[in-house]
Structures are given as structure tokens and as C-alpha cells.
Amino acid sequence: ASCVQHRLVLRDVSSLQIRQLYTCLDHIQYIEWSSDSLFILCAMYKRGIVQVWSLEQPDWHCKIDEGSAGLVASCWSPDGRHILNTTEFHLRITVWSLCTKSVSYIKYPKACQQGVAFTKDGRYMAVAERRDCKDFISIFVCSDWQLLRHFDTETQDLFGIEWAPNGCVLAVWDSCLEYKLVLYSLDGRLLSSYRAYEWPLGIKAISWSPSSQFLAIGSFDEKVRILNHVTWKKVTEFEHPATIASKKIIVYKEVEKSPSVETQRLSFPPARALASSVFSTQSKYEISQVPVSLQYIKPAADRANPKMGVGMLAFSADNCFLATKNDNIPSSVWVWDMRRLKLLVLLEQLSPVQCLQWDPRQPRLALCTGTSRLFLWSPAGCVAVQVPGEGDFQIVSLSWHSSGDSLLLLSKDNFCVCYLEREEV
């Protein structure tokens, strides 16, 4: 699905043929599929309206108008039959049912980066709340939206919440001014509290491993700390130095080279395909000899939101690898072996890394750097792929298909789909 101003376009994944066109009431600012892919919502925040379209019944549609309360966020519940709208100033969350047309209200949601979290099985929802200058967590049963637990948290200024994939533990972390991570059980019991240091800027990002055995914490001090699920104590910490000296680490460096063209093939005017290949540079990976010095950027001390610390971290689907990015070294991606708890590979790019994401089926990492190239790494090696097309297609974001057979690549104005061929077994 894609939107162009007030039009919603639905395409077939394999052929990109247009299947359906919908016209909304205003410019679409956000779209999201339901969990079963039978419905799609389009949010128009400026007008406080959400429109829902059905794929099975093109004539059916739904309009939700929040009126004077306004709208700042909208999302699906895991069952794909309820829509959660957050009103302006975070006064409340309104739960709309598509089946019964009933409405439920959740008061005092906190305005933070990640204030609503669902368990992976879709049974429970946790909501961060702020009442009387204190932080609270409310846990709801998604089947009937009844309150299951309500408890206060040991945080100064709660910044985000995230369930473990097994749905048994809820991680709650404080804002960057206070290094604190608190873990609660489903019934609201305090399991553990972790603090690495006290005064400098604290937690920047967290990530659960798919097995729920590890919790990775990215901090502003350029380190990743790994907690285990038995004692919730630190197992190890990964540093991100500007110099790589160990010979056990493979360093892949992106290099640009102009392609060589035979003079016999040149003609005037040159063919379009040949002209594009003559004047464009090609990119590939080379293995660097250690020691390697990386491009380190010192953050500006007089500006807010300094670009420092580990802001990206993601586990592979098989729990074997962890990919991280240190914002002080923005053009490098670190791949850690979670079986040995050591750095395995470093990918050194020519441009800052914009987005990285693992294949949902196998240990294969895709990343983009705001250029027209897609980069892939797996334990077998890595490759740089030039996206064909006219003009400058700068990839700023990417997303894997759930099957792992294709990738959606996004630029500011366009998108394309990259199809990967499976090896015959």
C-alpha cells in the first residue's frame, strides 16, 4: 500500500499491478495494515479523521472522526478489529470497535516515545500513564479491554515500554537524563532494576532477542550492555572503539570504482543503458587489513539531542547475531556473535547508515546509506547492489517482506521492490 496526497493505492507484491484505488477526505499522513491484511487504515491527523478500507468488500468503508479532541496517533490492535486513537495533548486513548461499533476510553496516556506496547500473542496491552506527576503502567486484556493491573513505576520520567517476545516481562526505561531500566512481570511485580552509571546521559535504545533470553541496552556512552533472563544481571558489554586492531575481526570496507568500458562499444550519442553505466560509479566491498581507523565524529556540546551513543540495535531472527550502530561512528555497522559474545564483522560504509533490518527468516542483514545502493550481509559474505532506474533513487528506509523473499526500498518520493532469488536445495 502507498499513498499519494489523498489517494490510497494498493498493489500486488509480485507484479506491482494496481489492485485497488481509494480516495480519502484529505492528505493521508499515516497508513497501517491490520494483522490479517483484510483492512487498512488511513489517518489524517490535521482533520482528526481516520478512514478504514476493506480489501474483501471494496464498497465497505468506515470513518472515525475524533472531532474537537483532535488526533496525534492511530494504530491497530493485534486482532485487526479495533483501532486505537490518541487525542491531542494525550488526554486519552479511544478504542473503536469495527465489529460492535462500541467505544472505550483510556485516560492519562503519557506523551513519550513508546507509550503503548502489545504482547506478541496479542492478548495484553501495556499503556504508560502520567498522573499527579508520577509514572504508572496499566495492563489491559485485549479481548474485552478490561483493566488487568495498574501499578506505579520506579522511574523519574518514563520514556518507553516494551514487552519481551514471550509476553512474560515488560521492560520500562527512563529518559536519557536518568540511567534506569526496570523489569516487571505480567502481574505488576518488580523483577529487577538495572543502572549502569549515574550522572551522564543514559539509555538511548533497547532490543529484546527473539528468544527473550537477552536484553540489549544501547547507551549514550557508546556501549551495549547485555542482560540475561535468569538473574537480569549484566552478562557482558560491547564497546565501539574508533580503531579496530584484532585480527580475528573481519572488516568489510565499501569502495567506489568507475566501471571500465571498451572503446569499441562507445558510440555517439551513447545508448541510454551504456551512458548510465559509463558516468555512474559502482560500489563493492573489500576486506581491510587491520588495524583500521574509523571516521569518528565528536558531537557538538552546545546542541540538543547530540548524535552520540548506540541508537540502533537489532537481533537476527535466529538469536545468533546482534547488529549495532554507534552514532559517533555513523558510517559503520557492528555485527556481534551472540554465541561467543564477541565482535565478528564490521561493515565500514562511505555514507552514514540510515536504516538496518534483519531478514525475518534467516541471518541476513540489509542496510541503506541514503544512496542508490542496497547492502546485504550474511555469514557467507556481503554484497553491494545498485538499484536500477532513471534518476537518483536515494534509499532512506527499507522493510523486509515477512517471507524474506523481497525488500521494500523507500526514497523520499518513490519506492521500489527488490526480489531475492532463493537457492535451490
UniProtKB/TrEMBL annotation:
It comes from the Eukaryota. InterPro entries: Centrosome-WD_assoc, WD40/YVTN_repeat-like_dom_sf, WD40_repeat_dom_sf, WD40_rpt. GO terms for cellular component: microtubule organizing center; MWP complex. SUPFAM superfamilies: WD40 repeat-like. Gene3D superfamilies: YVTN repeat-like/Quinoprotein amine dehydrogenase. This is WRP73 protein. It comes from Calyptomena viridis. The gene is Wrap73.
